[in-house]
Amino acid sequence: MEGLQNDQLPSAPDHVTTTKRGSLKWIYKGYAYIIEKRHRDEVMYWRCERKDELQCKGRMKSENDVIVQLSGVHSHTGDATRTDVAKVNDIIQERARTTRES
Question: For the chain: N or C, fewer Cβ within 10 A?
């Protein structure tokens, strides 16, 4: 698989959401990343959420909520609809939390 290029960085994530356990998840160019480790509050290292499932090597580094480095090669293709699906899921979850619809 082809890796993402660093030539368009620094950049913001396409969408920020949370995992089922409440950790941050960033979506960028069709790939979802979860926090692997933090260095102070401003520097975070991310890994592809499919690391365990597909042994994906995709990685990302952010500083002050801006993506500054991409590394590794993803073992799968990105999903162009990933951002839109995450946004809809966030709306549904928020509506479920704040309304009493049946």
Answer: C
Contact 16, 25 (CB under 8 A): yes
Per-residue pLDDT tens for 73-85?
Answer: 999 988 888 878 8
Enter the pTM of the model.
Answer: 0.76
Looking at the predicted structure, is the pLDDT value of residue 1 above 50? Answer: no
For the chain, the DSSP string reads -PPPPGGG-SB--SEEEE-TTS-EEEEETTEEEEEEEEETTTEEEEEETTHHHH----EEEEETTEEEEEES--SS---TTHHHHHHHHHHHHHHHHH----
